[in-house]
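Trying the structure run again after the queue cleared.
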Amino acid sequence: MQSTGITVERLLGRGQVMDAAPDAGEAWRVERGLLLVHSPGSWRLALPGDWLNIEALCGLPPDTRITALVPSRLQALPALPAPGGPELLALLVRQQRRWTDHLLALRSGSVEQRIRHLLDLVRQAVGGSRSGAAEPDLPALRDIAALVDAAPETACRVLARLRPARKSPRPASGTARPLLACA
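Done. Tokens:
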């Protein structure tokens, strides 16, 4: 990517797939959000600070599909270190280790532990904290279930238990409204 002094940014809404494959050598950094990066035979989650389209930096075909799990913002990287340079290699190794650690945490332990880890990743992705007053936007239930390798119904029950209790007025009929719809 040529450095023209113009900042290129992409905004993706929840569920939006990144459009056409970027030009060869063009890489993106996640500024905000949580993205599912799916390659044939594997997947990983990209968080703020992670680079996307690394394949192009290595001369490999761009065979990834990138989907925003929550609203996300990507920044084009205007200049890249020389391929094979020590700074680039160190960055990529650290990024790969993070991806591996997150995948392991999302696929081992109880469903509640896995969902708690995913919720922590979502908070990190949107710049929130555990004690923040506002809840971040969550990925779709089917995506949460797939990421933690659980049935959607199970993921829904666990999420309902984990969500903070809200004080909301009772409906006129006297029955309580569910805090999380599992449809």
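DSSP finds five helices and seven strands in the chain. Worth checking whether this holds up in the mutant runs.
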